[in-house]
Amino acid sequence: MRITELLRRAKEGDQVAAEEVIPLVYDVLRDLAQRERRARNATLVTTEILNAAYLRLFRPGECTWKDKDHFTAVASLAIRHVLVDHARRKKREKRAIKGERVPLDSILEAYEREAGDIEALNEALCRLQAQDEELAEIVQLRFFGRVDWEDIARVMRVSVRTVHRKWGLARAWLREELT
Question: How much is the pTM?
């Protein structure tokens, strides 16, 4: 509850609240980054994911989160973008070395095992978002944020059963798009 109150006050321009909330949301962000790193066997260390996402989230004048749940959703999106950027950078590096094949690092291998190439996944998620924002948000929260089913339901203000049903639809849609 304290985070929600501080986020609200920071959004209203309270500089003291903005300074107080940073260490609290930093812990939330660190937890998300650690879960993502462990889940994906990422070559990026937690600190790298955390710092890159933190910089995206705390741009001056852009702290507009409503509450802790909203922050978690936005943070999972920031982590997604960090991982996509990392994958793109690795591909550029791979293409830059002529005649020598550079193996994909473990983060890309993990994404390939679970959902194919991360760039393809990102593009598919963008197409899904254009068709159905709720399905895309569920994938975003679950896949990149490793958010629990109950928390997703709370954030989206629907039942856990609805989240599971929509997750199945989103997975089927993505599987079709990525094959």
Answer: 0.54
